[in-house]
Write a structure and sequence with these properties.
By secondary structure, the protein is mainly alpha-helical. Helix content is 61%, strand content 3%. It is globular, with a radius of gyration of 23 Å. The protein starts with 17 loop residues before the first strand and ends in a 19-residue tail after the last helix.
């Protein structure tokens, strides 16, 4: 008679990540940390090169921003100005939104990426590739179609909330490309965070935070005068398309073989 083990199997969150191949689970090696840092350095280099051309493309970016705002007006969805003025009139909320805008974008994204690297090496590469693709698409569009944010548009009443509250000057983050409103990488990164976090975490409150995060991000970036409603939609679409392109989800597990009747 065979002995059947009664020891419980470890929960998924504690079990080592494995790749499924021909029904056999094999450990997954983490990507080399040096290579990951090199990838980040290359992206920053390209972003800085494009940012260095901002003044040359200033006029085009302003025209594109005004055209985008007029297009939203024709659709009846130009809610950026009233929401911006409302936030500016509520000083405490303006401070909170300004610091959220300055800090959450980078820290939350890198935090989720690090957790993914440590806990789920089996999906890390696809998650990282999706984030890279998001940024590559964004950089290409910024180069070909620069768009000034609402706060910089001439002849409008927009208030630069992060500047007024002092968060922009006090923040130690690097200066962003001022003419990179379309698509919104704040939104794209936030949607990426949601996709990856829903894979990483099983606790209901963490999954709820993951779903609410891009909604809060869109509210902040629009009301602070940094983005348009349409470029947040574009950012979300870029993130979803990137995740689908690189198949940013856990590999399918092979189905267990069916045991013939009477098998023992």
């Amino acid at each position: 008679m065979r002995r059947v083990s009664t020891l419980p199997s470890p929960p998924d969150s504690l079990a080592p990540a494995t790749a499924e191949g021909q029904g056999v689970a094999t450990p997954v090696r983490r990507a080399a940390l040096a290579g990951e840092l090199a990838i980040i350095a290359v992206l920053v280099l390209f972003y800085d090169r494009i940012r260095g051309l901002t003044e040359v493309r200033r006029g085009v970016a302003m025209d594109n921003g005004l055209q985008l705002l007029n297009f939203e007006h024709s659709l009846g969805i130009d809610m950026e100005l009233p929401s911006n003025l409302w936030l500016a009139a509520h000083h405490y909320l303006a401070d909170v939104a300004s610091w959220y805008y300055q800090l959450a974008h980078l820290t939350v994204t890198l935090g989720v990426l690090v957790v993914c690297y440590v806990r789920r090496p089996d999906i890390y590469r696809s998650a990282r590739n999706a984030l890279i693709l998001i940024n590559v698409v964004g950089l290409i569009i910024y180069w070909t179609y620069p768009v000034a944010p609402p706060r910089l548009l001439p002849g409008t009443a927009f208030i630069d909330v992060t500047e007024v509250t002092g968060a922009a000057d006090a923040s130690t983050t690097s200066a962003p490309n001022p003419y990179a409103a379309m698509p919104s990488l704040h939104t794209a990164w936030a949607v990426w965070v949601t996709v990856v976090a829903l894979i990483l975490f099983s606790a209901w409150w963490l999954r709820l935070l993951a779903v609410l995060y891009p909604i809060l991000t869109v509210a902040v970036i629009v009301t602070t005068g940094n983005h348009y409603l349409l470029d947040t939609v574009a950012g979300a679409l870029v993130a979803v398309a990137a995740a689908a392109t690189v198949r940013c989800w856990p590999p399918a597990r092979p189905s267990a073989p069916t045991q013939p009747p009477g098998g023992g």
